[in-house]
Amino acid sequence: MTAAVVESPTLDLAGVLGLSLGRRDTAIEAKGRTRVRARDEEATASIARAEELAAWMDAVARNQDRDAFARLHRHFAPKLAAWMARAGMSQAHIEDIVQDCMVAVWRKAPLYDTAHGGVSTWIFAIARNLRVDHSRRKANREMLPLNDWDDMDDQPDGESRLLAAESETQVRRALERLPQEQKQVLIEAYFADKPQSSIAQGLGVPLGTVKSRLRLALAKLRALLEDAQ
Amino acid sequence: MTDAFRHPSDETLQRYASGGLRPGLALVVRVHLGGCPSCRAALRRFDAVGGALLDELPPARISPVLLEKIFARIDSGEAPQEARPAPVFTADGFALPAAMAGCRIGPWRFVHPKLRWARVEVPGAEADRVILLKIAAGFAAPAHSHRGLELTQVLAGGFTDGRAQYEPGDLIEADESLADHEPRVTGDEDCLCLAAVEKPLRIHSLLGRLFQPLMGI
């Protein structure tokens, strides 16, 4: 089989992933296509989930729907706990932050605006602020407002509202386009509170490799997502 | 010269988005974000990436009664914490950005007739190395190199370092890869900068590092 018979979306994705479809090695091509197709399906599933989450969030915001909130909790609480555990927090603090975060989700639900991005983006930002807040809890934390994501956002108009939903989809597709080893380093950079040297040690690669993988991943995301905006 | 030197790098914005940047460095980034729509857009992208990655994290075990506890807190009607409006405050005649509200500004100290600095204490992260630098017009800081990450936000006035001309609102990011950094104040106005460094250094050695040749250390 040659590249010509592969349907175009897959071919496009394969090109971005750097798969060499020009080679006459059918085994490699077939494997590559399976991988590409599998990751494309992952992206599609991820987008479908994002839409489901948005529907639950909407039910919480409009009707204070507790069943919908319980579903959001079942989805997010274990993931938030996983993040805080990776960031090196104790079990007691993890539970505190997850609780604070989900209470904030309920209370701020009426302020949630799909124009600001997806539910996961919104909850990620709330949890991030709580994480930062926690790391300096001993001080007067009311003094430094940390809700920058709510306050500093530029007011979206109708057009950017549509673009926000679109870009949520783009982000998930863009992530699936990253080579696995870059995505792995990106996940570490987001959720593990450790220096790059420890990440390198954990992966068994040189520090320079971690730095360049992260730089490549961020540059690629910027290129893919700036176009999408 | 290129615009790339006036904004935080993607690496720095990503660390800010994840909450992993030290509070002192995060303060400088937050001041920059307050005046930079394009970096706010980039931060939203990094938040969206964080959200999508969060969605994919393998779940950890949580207490089965956690949801009950959350509903109990929701029903208790405990007051939501409102962030206080940030008061506008000044330092040495300069109005400081709202993002710096809550920070304590120490006394001004001279290291040179044309160079003054004051310690900035970030609440909850008092050990972080953050300073305000006030540099008089015409002053050139001696060349210095960097260890670790250094972020400098221009609040007033302007300076050049040979790579670019910086104006208020610009953020200059420097690390080990940038050698012989030789900032020189341009124009007639004094230059005020907010700067933070990553490496744990005593305040004496911080200055030593910033203005090593000047201080003769």
Helix content of chain A: over 70%
Largest interface, counted with CB-CB under 8 A?
Answer: A-B, 79 and 57 residues
- Going by helix content, strand content and strand pairing, the class of chain A is mainly alpha
CATH topology of chain B, by name, is Jelly Rolls
Kindly state the number of beta strands of chain A.
0
Which class do the helix and strand fractions of chain B yield?
Answer: alpha+beta
What does this structure look like?
The complex is a heterodimer of chains A (229) and B (217). With 229 residues, chain A is mostly helical. Chain A is 74% helix and 0% strand. Chain A has helices at 8-17, 26-63, 66-86, 91-108, 119-134, 148-151, 158-177, 180-191, 196-203, 207-228. In chain A, helix 1 packs across helix 2. Chain A starts with 7 loop residues before the first helix and ends with a helix. Chain B has a single domain (1-82, 90-217), classed as Jelly Rolls, CATH 2.60.120.10. Chain B has six helices and twelve strands. Chain B has helices at residues 10-18, 23-34, 37-56, 66-76, 203-210, 212-215; strands spanning 90-91, 94-95, 104-105, 109-112, 115-121, 129-135, 150-156, 158-160, 165-166, 171-174, 184-186, 191-197. In chain B, a hairpin with a 2-residue loop joins strand 1 (90-91) and strand 2. The radius of gyration of chain B is 20 Å and the shape is elongated. Residues 200-208 and 212-217 of chain B have low confidence and may be disordered. Classes of the chains: A mainly alpha (229), B alpha+beta (217). At the A-B interface, helix 2, helix 3, helix 4, helix 5 and helix 6 of A face helix 1, helix 2, helix 3 and helix 4 of B.
Mind sketching the topology for me?
The complex is a heterodimer of chains A (229) and B (217).
Chain A: H1 8-17, H2 26-63, H3 66-86, H4 91-108, H5 119-134, H6 148-151, H7 158-177, H8 180-191, H9 196-203, H10 207-228
Helix pairs in contact in A: 1-2, 2-3, 2-7, 3-4, 4-5, 7-10, 8-10, 9-10
Chain B: H1 10-18, H2 23-34, H3 37-56, H4 66-76, E1 90-91, E2 94-95, E3 104-105, E4 109-112, E5 115-121, E6 129-135, E7 150-156, E8 158-160, E9 165-166, E10 171-174, E11 184-186, E12 191-197, H5 203-210, H6 212-215
Antiparallel strand pairs in B: 1-2, 3-5, 4-5, 5-6, 6-12, 7-10, 7-12, 8-9, 8-11
Helix pairs in contact in B: 1-3
